[in-house]
Design a protein that fits this description.
By secondary structure, the protein is of the alpha/beta class. The protein is built from five helices and five strands.
Length: 130
């Protein structure tokens, strides 16, 4: 079994990592922790370095429990939700776990919702975590 976790460093994403660790232990699964950035120009260099540090930290959660884990920083010019769904298809993922942030209806309309896109478009079951 292969589990994908969308990780952006938020508290809800950290909760998603915890749940992924439980599922991976229970189902003897491997985990792919994925961070998606739309752009990777020189202006975003600090954000890229922060994302890489966040992924390294996330991997330690799985290393402690001896769970197979790979990290991926995707910079492919796609919106994060679209990027996660495409990665899930490419990697033949069996389950996606994403954190859900509370937003107003207007906030979702203006900003969109990565989790909502993943839930509606994913090729496999999606678990959302608050």
């Amino acid at each position: 079994m292969k589990i994908l976790v969308g990780y952006d460093g938020s508290n809800s994403a950290k909760e998603a990592l915890k749940l992924a660790r439980q599922h991976a232990s229970a189902f003897k699964a491997s985990v792919d922790v994925v961070t998606s950035m739309e752009q990777g120009t020189e202006g975003e260099q600090q954000a890229i370095e922060d994302a890489e540090r966040g992924l390294e930290w996330a991997k330690t959660m799985f290393d402690e429990k001896k769970i197979a884990c790979k990290t991926h920083l995707l910079i492919r010019g796609m919106a994060p939700g679209e990027d996660l769904v495409e990665f899930a298809k490419e990697a033949n993922v069996d389950e996606i776990i994403v954190g859900v942030k509370r937003r107003s209806k207007v906030g979702k309309l203006l900003m969109g919702s990565t989790a909502q896109f993943v839930i509606l478009q994913a090729p496999c079951p999606v678990v959302s975590v608050k």
